[in-house]
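Summary for the steering committee. The consortium agreed at its last meeting that each partner would contribute one worked example illustrating the joint modelling workflow. Our contribution is presented below. We chose a case with several input lines so that the handling of multiple components could be demonstrated. No manual editing was applied between input and output; the record is shown as generated.
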Amino acid sequence: MPVQDRLVRLSAAADALRRAGCARAGATSAEPAVISYLTKVREHAFRVIDSDVGALRALGMSDDAIFDVTVAAAVGAADERLARALALLDLDEAD
Amino acid sequence: MRLPEYSVGRRPSQRIALRITRGLGAELDDVAKCAMRRPDSFGRPFLALVRSALRGSATWSAGELELFGAVVSQANACDFCVGMHGEIAAAALGARFGDWRDGRFGPRATAAAEFVDALTRETVDAGHVDQARDEGVDDAALAEAAYVAFVFNTINRVANALDFGYRSDADRVRGARILQRSGYRLPGILLR
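What follows is the complete predicted structure of the assembly.
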């Protein structure tokens, strides 16, 4: 497959993940525990500990809800880096 | 795994598959369990992206693409993904993942690896692109590597936040072999 076609395919696949339910879920809560958790996931997810997830559960969040906000935050952080790369390469996802 | 509901299948067919797998002495990995639990909203689109990013390049070998994934995972301190993808890269490229910066994977792959490492750490600049170009890596090839970084910058965070792991080192090595053989495909029955 020519590389330009491959990049179009990769762009479409990345977009499908962004549009999928989990990545779109995001958190609308202003609860400090939620904000703190999402900040950790974006900036240094390896520092998340059991009590961070426990605090979300204490707010009544289900496993699915916790998974959704985790994926949404992760995709957001990944997307910022992809945009930076494509900008440096003078490419955008339409290329 | 910090989400107990994700350790059991959602549908009866999934629970049976998990039991059979365990009966054979293996364990489906935590990414696969999440994909199975949320097939529409995560599993299928994520695995399709993984297959697109880690296979089918005319520029990079599958081993080199796995190397970029392991480098991003190392930058994100994701032991789960380093263990899996460092293993696959090492098997494919014939060198231990470890200190990849010493050039053991060749100048082109090392320059692209430096690029995705800096991208992940948010220290990337035009100098990394110039360095890669000097080693013969064109911009489209770097863009391919950037999509691998997109995959791993996503899943490393999920794996770290939700504490993905293996039951044993044997499970890790076996899982790496299965991923390499299956090309990141799960049986359709598990993704319904």
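Chain A has a mean pLDDT of 89. Residues 3-88 of chain A form one domain.
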